[in-house]
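In this supplementary section we document a worked example of the pipeline. Step one takes a protein sequence of length 221 as its only input; no multiple sequence alignment statistics are reported here. Step two produces a three-dimensional model, which step three serialises into structure tokens for compact storage. The input and output of this example are shown verbatim.
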Amino acid sequence: MGQRKASTDGDRKVGRRALLIGGLAAATGTAVLARDELARLWWRTPGVEKPRKEGEVDYAGARWVAASDANWRRADRPDDFGIDTVIVHVTQGSFDSAVKAFQDPGHKAATHYIVRQDGHVTQMIRELDVAYHAGNRDYNERSVGIEHEGFVDRPQDFTDEMYEASARLTARICARYDIPVDREHIIGHVEVPGTDHTDPGPHWDWKKYMRLVREARTAPA
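The serialised model returned by step three reads:
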């Protein structure tokens, strides 16, 4: 491009009224940001938390079985940590062995949900709270983890009932937190930065699963 000519409009000094209006807008924006930050800090204050009921589930189709307190951290999401991701896991074992592991304080890990091969859903940690499932603190704080009964090298373990039940669960989580139904926000454990896990593995049918999630997301409640 050639040499730029000075524009009288572009070089015009900003008037006092424009400064006042601009300052007001900036102050308003700052006030909104400050209010949001104060809300986040409020929910991080010790002793401040949302009302809870023992045994309450976040997903109507789930049965509650509590994980060990050592395998998750109390929080008040999404007020203290926003939720924008669902992480898909595979248990590498039976449903019963996964439940037992998540109830073991020495295991140091658990997901929010486990989906059995017959489609049964068990919730072990409230979505309010941070589950130790991703192997990455940032992803733990911003995600909901769902385990699926089976082994990564056995495609027969991923039944239609499992896919359908899990898709309905994921669709409800996405609706609750306004999470986009796409592969940037619904990911496998293997896709979490820094993880050494390979699940859900090469036999997990992402195309089928995402189609089912979209169908469940748009279906009447």
